[in-house]
Amino acid sequence: MNRQNIWVHITIAAVIISFAAVLGQLEHMRSDLKFIGKSEQRAASKPVVRTAKPVVESRMTTGEPEVLVKFRPDVTSAQIERIAAKNNDRVEDSIEAVKNLTAIDDLDDADAETVANQYSAMSDLVLYAEAVQQIKLEPTENFRPVAPKFDEELKDFSSPNDPMFNEQWALNNDGQNGGKAEAHIAALKAWAKTHGSGEVVIAVLDTGVDYTHPDLINNIWIRPDTVPAYTDADLGTIDDMRGFDAAENTGDPMDDNGHGTHCAGIIGAEGNNDVGIAGINWNVEIMPLKFLGRGGFGSTKDAIEAINYAVDRKKNGVNIRVISASWGSTQKSKALGDAIDAAGKAGILFVAAAGNDSTSNDKRPHYPSNYDLPNVISVAALDRTDNLASFSNFGVKTVHIAAPGREIVSTWLDDDYREASGTSMATPYVAGTAALILSSEPDLSVEKLRKRILNSVDKINSLNGKIESGGRLNAAKALGD
Description:
Rossmann fold; 2 domains; four-stranded antiparallel beta sheet
């Protein structure tokens, strides 16, 4: 073989070897593809357990649900899934507390009202359908920073040692700072009977709660080891150690707004701990339920999911007896009303702010405070002279009770304290008093608890024709003193 033929054969051999390598790589890739295909088939044949993180990612890519649909009782879950798929929609969440109430995400990004109308037209299958509505915090006056101050000469030694207690006129009004003596909820008399109980759980449905605040940290609910982590068929399993964030579907309801923390302090800032203020309950368990974000905005769907969570926890052994809701809208949601009703049937009182528009709720309804349900209490706001606050809504048919709501000092973000005004502040006084009553009478039904609060008010002439009960909250009388 001459030298030229040798190089020809070498070249041919190199080509053959390269070609064989390519064929081998293709076969290897084909094997990988087959393996992936079998994995997908195996996954499709088994239920997928989804955790909170993948759910959040899914929601980011598919968007928030646009409509809430309540199907008729005889419609099965499988049928609901098929109906949604046929309309190129996705079942985002089924609300277990309300049978066949479903959050639907339209994958075509159609107008929400159009989608709601489409489902409403299926009258043989659907009871109602409505667009998801935006909810925002009530406009609240002056979140003004305040500094702790303590004057031994002003201290009543029957009161707690919290440095700012003298500023808490709503709990004990002796006429300080231009107030009217005894225009308060009679907290000192109430505390002679009870300071609250760590066995009672009260949920703050709001912007979350700063659960690290030194005046709140010991009164924050922590899921007991005996209670399983929250598991939802659509949302997956969520490690709800300190409550629930329904906007993000996580177990971290940390407040990044401040409003929820302020409300929580009114209910249950630790009393007599030589720090800051005293809550109505020195001892209680506050469950943060977050559905409003940093800017104070949320949705009916997220509020419903948070209430659904509370009902689930109640059924799993958590002694949640009260939900405090300091927010509202003039738009009525049938779905939200159904969720609140379900909470009532589970033994949970729902206390709601009457609103800050200086208007009559009899003529211009405000929700959720206007839901005519046996577990709802609607709360107006008073100032330190026992007059209805200028901003407060009213209504002799629809607003049930008044409580202090102007110039209220409470906890704030970053270990701080602030003063604020609104029916948002009046609401947790009523909710907190309900928890105080339950600490003494843990088996009291929702109906009897509500009746006790409304029948024990201090009658005020200025509230005649303005508020159904005609009076101001009195915690001591509500406790039977």
